[in-house]
Specification:
The protein has about 425 residues and is α+β, with helices and mostly antiparallel strands. It is built from 13 helices and 13 strands. It folds into two domains: about 110 residues, no CATH class; about 325 residues, no CATH class.
Length: about 425
């Protein structure tokens, strides 16, 4: 009896539903029922195939790459982070002037420290020698670099942003990086209010007058520029007595939809190289002492810094497939053209950038960011949840007539009609109560 009541409710649903062809499934003619059943199955198969195609295309995350006109954004374009790093020989010689080291250690310390700071492979014997020297001075590698690296005031003498002279101590500060302790200038440190003329300029200029060498040693510096989102940068060497002009252009690609609900394709917080470094640190069980800490980065995990002898583990190859690192949502590539000329040819100039700098030991670095040659791209997804739902709704409506009202009819059948039919059937089956 229950099955008969449910059957009557379902047949009534077939007669009144808006679904394509379903009302003919309860026809009194057998051929009509079979024919429309075949048609409904074929329509359902076509709808399933098209839905699978739409879902596969949605998982591929197709996007449209658009180029932004920098003439509308050039006023907000900033200089990259600029870092000036003294040579490893300068740090080693500053240490040797104050410490008591054997003759063999004095000869081997500068090249060993140079290999460590330049992230080149070193033998276990070389690293053990460097660690022994640090242990005798009761100091770690990070403390050693901060203590014996010259101050930014001694290295960078004169600074000029665009056409305004700025005190260098307000721009540069000592920070630990992957290349040792360097003098870092971050774009946010430039607090000069731009004038109406500078807002229209298509070139950002930072001119530095430096002197990395002292009277005892003639060594140069290294510098690099880095935007947030760049994967890896290599420092460029600066020879004393030379004038350098660095022409920079960049290409930025920004993913406008980082929060993908199906499959995350990029990371908003860290670059891929940063993620690989953290994965290597987990593998080695200690944190790299030569790493810069980002402002929004979590505390170092593991919290123990690696010793000098453990640096080979950090520089070794780790299986990338185990790290599960995503590329960054913002990718920037910088291209630099470096021009050089002797400072001696500029000895008759009256430019204040060369004030107090020895022509044979000083370095002039003019960094120019060419906005006109730079590009900013935006990745806009063409398939979102809204477009997917609209496409699926169109497919089901075309082949089966399934829409919002059809879904309401089906829910009404399941929630209301079938329970009522079952309840009425139970009331009819109960025997009447007789009283004596």
């Amino acid at each position: 009896m229950k099955q008969a009541a449910c059957g009557r409710a379902i047949r009534q649903f077939y007669k009144t539903t808006t679904l394509h062809g379903f009302k003919y499934l309860c026809s009194k003619y057998y051929s009509d029922r079979v024919g429309w059943l075949v048609c409904c199955c074929a329509s359902a198969c076509c709808a399933g195939v098209l839905c699978a195609v739409l879902w596969a295309r949605f998982l591929q995350v197709p996007a449209l790459l658009t180029l932004k006109e920098l003439r509308f954004y050039h006023s907000s374009v900033r200089m990259p982070q600029v870092a000036v790093c003294p040579a490893a020989e300068i740090v080693a010689n500053a240490f040797l002037e104050q410490a008591n080291v054997s003759i063999s250690g004095k000869e081997r310390l500068p090249p060993i420290l140079g290999r460590v700071l330049r992230r080149k492979p070193a033998t276990t014997e070389q690293l053990e020698l460097l660690e022994t020297i640090l242990m005798e001075d009761n100091i770690t590698l990070t403390q050693f670099l901060f203590k014996y690296t010259p101050t930014c005031r001694d290295i960078i003498r004169n600074c000029r942003w665009q056409t305004a002279t700025i005190p260098c101590v307000e721009l540069f500060s000592k920070e630990i990086t992957q290349w040792g302790v360097c003098c870092i200038m971050r774009p946010k440190k430039i607090q000069i209010r731009p004038t109406s003329i500078t807002k229209l300029e298509i070139t950002r200029r930072l001119h530095l007058g430096m002197q990395c060498s002292n009277d005892s040693f003639l060594n140069g510096c290294e510098f690099y520029t880095k935007y947030e989102g760049e994967e890896w940068v290599e420092p460029e060497s600066l020879t004393p007595g030379m004038n350098y002009i660095a022409q920079l252009t960049f290409v930025s690609v920004l993913d406008s939809d980082p929060d993908k609900l199906v499959d995350a394709k990029c990371s908003k917080r860290h670059s891929r190289s940063r993620c690989l470094l953290r994965c290597t640190e987990y593998f080695c069980g200690c944190s790299d002492p030569l790493r810069s800490k980002l402002p929004d980065e979590d505390p170092l995990v593991p919290s123990t810094l690696c010793t000098v002898t453990q640096l080979n583990c950090l520089r070794s190859f780790v299986d990338i497939s185990k790290c599960q690192c995503l590329p960054p949502c913002k990718k920037i590539s910088t291209y630099m053209a470096l021009e050089t000329s002797p400072i001696s040819k500029l000895k008759y100039t009256h430019d204040n950038i060369y004030r107090g700098i020895n022509a044979t030991k000083g370095v002039s670095l003019n960094i120019r960011l060419r906005i006109s040659g730079s590009r900013i791209f935006s990745v806009n997804p063409t398939e979102t949840w809204i477009t997917l739902l609209s496409s699926l709704g169109g497919v089901f409506n075309m082949f089966l007539g399934v829409g919002l009202f059809s879904a309401l009819e089906f829910l009404f059948l399941i929630i209301v009609k079938l329970p009522i039919a079952i309840k009425r059937n139970n009331e009819l089956e109960q025997p009447p109560i007789t009283r004596h």
